[in-house]
TrEMBL record:
This is Aminotransferase-like plant mobile domain-containing protein. It comes from the Eukaryota. GO terms for biological process: meristem maintenance. InterPro entries: AminoTfrase-like_pln_mobile, MAIN-like. Residues 113-269 form the Aminotransferase-like plant mobile domain. PANTHER family: PROTEIN MAIN-LIKE 2, PROTEIN MAIN-LIKE 2-LIKE.
Length: 282
C-alpha cells in the first residue's frame, strides 16, 4: 500500500475541464455536411464531438459533484512465498511445458515467477482520475491514450485467439471431479480455503500429488496475475473452468479478456470514488 499526505493526493492543477476535451479520432463525415466543417482535411473544432466531463473523475471533482478522496493502490499480484518455487517445479516437467505451450501461456507463466511491479502512486492518482468511463481512454490536455490489445500481447505474452468459447467451456466427467476439488480449495476454514497463501501451501506441496494439481496451479496464476480485483488475497471460482481448459492444452483468448477486465476495474475505481462521498479512502 502506498502512502502520501492528503495535500499531494488531491492537488492536481495540470488538468482542467476548461481544456475542452476532444475525442482523439473524429467520426467520418456524413453526406450533406458543408465544406466549412472541414479545415485542411480535419473536422472543425465545433464539429468534433466532446467527451462528457461527467465521465471523468477529475472533471467531476472540479465541478464539485463529489469531493476528492485519497486513492491508495494495493498490488496483490506481486511475488509471494512459495509461488516462484511452484512455477519452477511445474516447468521442469516436460509434459506440463508441452500443455502450457499448446495453450499459448508458457512464456506468461514463466514471467510470473519473478513478477514484481513498482507502483508510482502519485503518478497513478493523476492518471486514474483522467480515465473516461465513456471512451475507456485516459484524457489529457494533449489528447487521449489507453492500454491496447497489442500492449497486452507484447507485455504479458497472452494469447489473442481461442480454440473454444471461454464462456461456454465443455467439461468432461473427469474435469467435473477436478472442479469440485478446486471449489473446496485448501482444507482450512471455508473463509480461507481460497486464499492465495493457503492455496500455494496445499496444492503446491511437493509431496502432494492431487489429480487437479495442474489446474490448481493455473487457477492461482489466472486469479492472481490476470483477473485479480479489489478482493485481496483470494481466488474466485470463475477462473476454475478456464484453468481446467488450459490444463487440457486448450487456447483461451486471455489477452482480450484481461484488457476488458482492466477496463472494468478502472471504471469501478471511479464508481467507488463517487460512492465514497468524501468520507473514506478508496
Amino acid at each position: 500500500m502506498a502512502s502520501a499526505d492528503s495535500s499531494s493526493i488531491i492537488r492536481d492543477h495540470l488538468y482542467s475541464i476548461e481544456d475542452k476535451l476532444k475525442r482523439g479520432r473524429p467520426p467520418p463525415l456524413l453526406k450533406g455536411v458543408g465544406e466549412d466543417a472541414v479545415i485542411d482535411g480535419e473536422l472543425a473544432p465545433d464539429v468534433v464531438p466532446v467527451i462528457d466531463p461527467a465521465s471523468i473523475s477529475r472533471c467531476c471533482i472540479e465541478r464539485g459533484l463529489f469531493p476528492a478522496v485519497p486513492l491508495f493502490f494495493q498490488y496483490p499480484c506481486g511475488t509471494s512465498k512459495g509461488w516462484s518455487e511452484w512455477v519452477g517445479r511445474e516447468l521442469r516437467d516436460p509434459s506440463t511445458r508441452d500443455i502450457l505451450s499448446r495453450a499459448g501461456v508458457l512464456d506468461a507463466v514463466f514471467l510470473s515467477r519473478a513478477w514484481d511491479i513498482h507502483v508510482e502512486a502519485k503518478m497513478l492518482r493523476h492518471v486514474v482520475r483522467r480515465w473516461s468511463t465513456e471512451t475507456h481512454t485516459f484524457v489529457c490536455s494533449w489528447g487521449e491514450f489507453t492500454p491496447t490489445l497489442e500492449d497486452v500481447a507484447n507485455i504479458l505474452h497472452l494469447p489473442l485467439c481461442s480454440s473454444q468459447d471461454p464462456f461456454h467451456i465443455t467439461l468432461t466427467p473427469e474435469d467435473k471431479l477436478k472442479l469440485e476439488a478446486l471449489r473446496k480449495g485448501a482444507p482450512t476454514s471455508p473463509s480461507t480455503s481460497l486464499h492465495f497463501s493457503n492455496w500455494i501451501q496445499f496444492f503446491g506441496d511437493v509431496n502432494r500429488n492431487e489429480s487437479c494439481r495442474l489446474a490448481a496451479f493455473i487457477s492461482l496464476w489466472l486469479g492472481r496475475f490476470l483477473f485479480c480485483d479489489f478482493s485481496q488475497d483470494c481466488l474466485h471460482a470463475r477462473v476454475f473452468p478456464l484453468a481446467l481448459a488450459i490444463a487440457r492444452g486448450d487456447m483461451i483468448p486471455l489477452a482480450p479478456m484481461f484488457l476488458g477486465h482492466l477496463y472494468c476495474l478502472l471504471d469501478q475505481v471511479q464508481f467507488l470514488e463517487k460512492g465514497a462521498a468524501g468520507t473514506t479512502t478508496v
